[in-house]
Hints:
The complex is a heterodimer. Chain A is of the alpha/beta class. Chain A has 18 helices and 31 strands. In chain A, helix 10 (345-354) packs across helix 15 (560-570), helix 10 packs across helix 16 and helix 12 (494-518) packs across helix 17 (594-602). Chain A is elongated. Chain B is globular and about 50 Å long. By secondary structure, chain B is an alpha/beta fold. A 5-stranded parallel β-sheet of chain B has the order 2-1-3-4-5, sandwiched between helices.
Amino acid sequence: MATVLFHPFEKTIETEGAQTILQLAQRLGLPLESACGGRKVCGKCKVIVEQTAEPLPLPSERESKSLGRLLDRGYRLACETTLTADAVVRIPEESLSRRQVILTSGAGYRVPVRLRPGVHPHPVRVAEPVLHSIQGDRERLLLALRETYGLGELVFDPFVLRKIPDLLRSGGEVVTAFVRDGREVIDLRRDSDGSAFGIAFDIGTTTVVGYLMDLSTGRESSVRAALNPQTAFGADVVSRITLCQEEPDGLERLRSGIVGCLNGLVAEACAEAGMEADRVLEATAVGNTVMNHLLMGLDPRYLAMAPYPPVLQAAQDVKARDLGLRIAPSGYLHLLPLKAGFVGSDTIACVLATGLRRSEIPTLLLDLGTNGEIVMGDRRRLLCCSTAAGPAFEGGHIRFGMRAAPGAIERVKIDPATLEVSVQTIDHLPPVGICGSGIISAVAEMVRSGIVLQRGNFNEELRSPRLRRGGEGWEFVLAWASGTALRQDIVVTRKDVSELQLAKSAVHAGASLLQEMFGAPFRRVLLAGACGNYMDPRDALAIGLIPENPGARIIGVGNAAGHGSCLALLDTKKRKEAERIIRSMEYQELAGLSRFSELFLSGMYFRSARDGRGDGDAFQ
Amino acid sequence: MANLESLQQAVISGKRKDAMDLTQKAVDEGVDPQEIINGCLIPALNTVGDKFEKREIFVPEMMIAAKSMKSCVDLLKPLIQKDQAMTRGTVVIGTVFGDLHDIGKNLVRLLLESSGFQVIDLGENVPAAKFVEAARAHNADLVGLSSLLTTGDPHVRETVRALKESDVSSRLKVICGGAALTPKFVLETCGADAYAKDAAEAVKKIASLLANR
């Protein structure tokens, strides 16, 4: 009877017969990596035998070849080494199999994910061809895969077939077949290097992001972002749909534009990670419904007309080469499912990333952007809607509005006594404009200091050099020209306030309506999207963007859509969950609903404004 | 003595409860309901429209004022004798096919009804044929089309064409409005009689188009 202790887990096991270290580790459930499952092919299960009561058997020829000088430091292959006496074994860092990784996000919102990618490496040794029994290269490879891993009927992508003859004769003994879904061989590589990479895309109307991930460790290798080139044809989705209607080649121009952008991100991300793009074997993509359709080359025109039916809702697995996406030629792109014309796979990805479907706490999820998607619910029931909030949250329709970029005012503070203003800009550069979180902050402060009143009008009785009549009506100066990079005073106009009123009222009304339909108040609010992440939750409440539920926590969750895309890339079970989400989530069309119109109108006021207390409910 | 001046102010500032109280007070003191509408509420509406044009107020405040006005009109309507009711014209309005936006259209309806027009609101997503049918059935003086998406242009064109080619076209005026439309498109391409950029302008133009009915 021998006792074996495993570091760093501090677990021991008794062994009678001669069992390999790998078998012992597996009995204890320790995460010791073994790509070939103990078939003595991959060489991944390196361990260090630190102490042993009796000398170990000599290393096999394979071990010597695989470990080389490491043998001198006590390294052995766990699948080849048996123990018959007491021993202490350490599993080094590089041999730990990663079953669970934590995705970080800029907002500090951590999403744990189980590593279950769709593509798996299978290192094998393929038998040499013999004269007396003709078997093709492909057939011998299939045989090796069946005998080693029990894999049944496998399909080879035609482009992979082309690699077989040379790879089988390239001098090494081992080739690695990358199998997708246990069914299709999508790549073949020499040696046992089992690293496969994947890229997760978040295709926004304005910004596109690509996350290059190592599928064997779940680690992020590189993140790149780019401006969506379709913006040249229109800032919003409706103008892009109009292009498809008006120009015969409109759809093709938009499609090739986004594919070019994705290819650029792949190239940049791979360059940064120091690898070739053909090592990227799998991709996922999320985006609003119009983005999804344009990528696939589907005509989006019916999305603009009631009742806004999408061409499809189900998830799609498409060969990357069919879309012109330049990753491994045989790799797939998985597009997550979508719910409706204006609730796309990006919203589904947000729900995935935030785990709403399993939440015990009724939660409100807001993805603030031009469309303002809202999801409300918990594990019992999920509801969603889309409020055409307008572009104010992204700086659109605002006099000095801009997207979040260096120099954008993102936070404002007004001294209620002196009405003096201090602004904070992105990267602390001289201000060039105001971004979404900045306009929210500015109006919130203007309400708090009594400059803006309940109806959204300015308090014309206040005396301050910053409050004045400009060319387009009343305005309040945030930054004097001398302090800006523009040589103009940066102001917030009465019209800017009204644009924000319309946008915030639409979101408030949508959220209130979903809450009414859900039948219970939400106790937590999750803010997704760039604007949501940088906005001060107190400002959101002050302007009436979010219905007020005392005690409800408000949390920024960063680019939840992007993280949902990464989750689906690293864990194929998340793809099934996405399908379940679209089946069970209920979509509520707001247009034409009189309750929405009522709520939209009553939500127009700034209830926390100074004249609110004086007049009581004269407005109601 | 009921202060009609205060009532006018209350409506303009969107103070609904105050406006309703003052309206009721005026009625109780025997002021003629129609006179309240003509002498007080309609001028209030015109002031609101002017402020909107001068950019002293914007859509939110206009909606708030319109809601106050509607509440007062709703109070007064049952009190007005049928034969006394002046109607300045019959107007059919709706949002074109494929479009579900209704805020602008609802505002126009509110303003028109409060100013003495009879309004038939067909709602949203209205096909061309339905506009024609309604114009015929109600003997309409004017049809107003609302369109908020550029993707609705073909439907605006189709609807105007159908109206102009119908048997009721001779007595019918057609006006189109909404954020997606331009004067050139509406007047030249579609051949409509008038274009309005927003609800306030729409009501003004409708009033002048039907002034001689």
